[in-house]
Amino acid sequence: MTQLRAALASTNGLILAGIVLGALFGAFFPELALAQRIIGQMFVALLKMLVVPLVFASIFVAIAGLGTLHHLKNMGLRTIGLYLLTTALSVLLAIVVMNVLGIGEAVSAEGIAFAQAHEIKPFSFEAMLLGFIPTNVFASLTNGAMMQVIVFSILFAIASLYLSDHHQGLMLDFFTGVNNAMLKMAEWVIKLTPLGVFSLIAYVVADEGVDVILGLWKYMLVVIGVILLHGLVTLPSLVAFFARVNPYHYMGQVKEAILLAFSTASSAATLPVSIEVSEHKGGVRRESAGFVLPLGATVSMDGTAAYLVVAVLYIATLAGVELSFGDQVLLGVTVVALSVGVAALPSASLVMMVVILNQIGLPADYIGLIVAVDRVLDMFRTSLNVTSDLMVTKIVDVTTRKEALGEAAQERSA
């Protein structure tokens, strides 16, 4: 993977240049920026092309590499627990910041409409649970239903542990080859990252318009501020506490994935790069990266959770509704719970916002006042989602490695 590391290193400055030049190009040449959208779409499509086979193969190889259900249980419980913790902390931070700053003023709901909110079906716990289970795994693979693909690949990998050593070896060799082939293709796509980033950023700036962005600058600054605080303070603190490593050094090692998440606004599209940089630059074992990151790309939503809390409290202010402490606690609990469950449903963030607004009695049409900058903020919240995935992966890898060394030492002493 020496070539891949060299490719990543050479693109660092070019990615940053692509972001800056793309923003300027979109602002000063909007018609051209809109016309060249196909370049960015092709880049994202190439990344997404790799996701399903990479997720399936990487999870299989990770679980087969762990060898026992005991190690899988420890890693799985630790992963889910950390993802819930980071999401809860992002929600708490958003609530505190919004109560301290208190931005927004009450506005009339007359003439405000957001038709898409009324097209969303009511949230159902039963539908959520059924959404995790693939009734036709080939349809799930075809449609890119990530949660269903993950559930099936985990069960499939566990079943392989009960096969003979001969068959286990054959299957592990096959899926290791598939995994390596997908990562080789990712190496090729990575070389296109600066051009893809330029195209995506230019289109977003031209499509949204600078005037719209400036009109909601206070709201945007609060959302971005919460995201930066969580990404640069809360998450690094967790890594330093649990893993005992320098979190900022690690962030520097995996920054390519964070920058790519910002430009694509897609955790799934960023997944191939996240796996690569965490393994080959961040020093994470393949078993940890292959299991924790695909799961995180589906259920870890720190950025989305923080964004939703700020948006809902901002909408409450616009609607002239003062939420009590109990209401805000309920809001936080709801966001944390839905961040895992709604991931199996399409348009997850919009579904979550509508569900939350309906639950606390706020009109969903107020979404129409903030939806204009949603695409811009989506880039920031996705970059935080991916940052959280990478940080949790590092914690899980370090702690499980220490645990395995401790067990090995006990066995030797016994």
UniProtKB/TrEMBL annotation:
Major site of localization recorded for this protein: membrane
Sorted UniProt keywords: Cell membrane, Membrane, Transmembrane, Transmembrane helix, Transport
Protein topology in the membrane: Multi-pass membrane protein
Record field: transmembrane: 45-69, 81-101, 145-164, 185-205, 217-245, 295-317, 329-357
Subcellular location(s) of the protein: Cell membrane
UniProt cross-references to InterPro entries, sorted A to Z: Na-dicarboxylate_symporter, Na:dicarbo_symporter_sf
The protein's name in its UniProt record: Dicarboxylate/amino acid:cation symporter
Pfam families according to UniProt: SDF
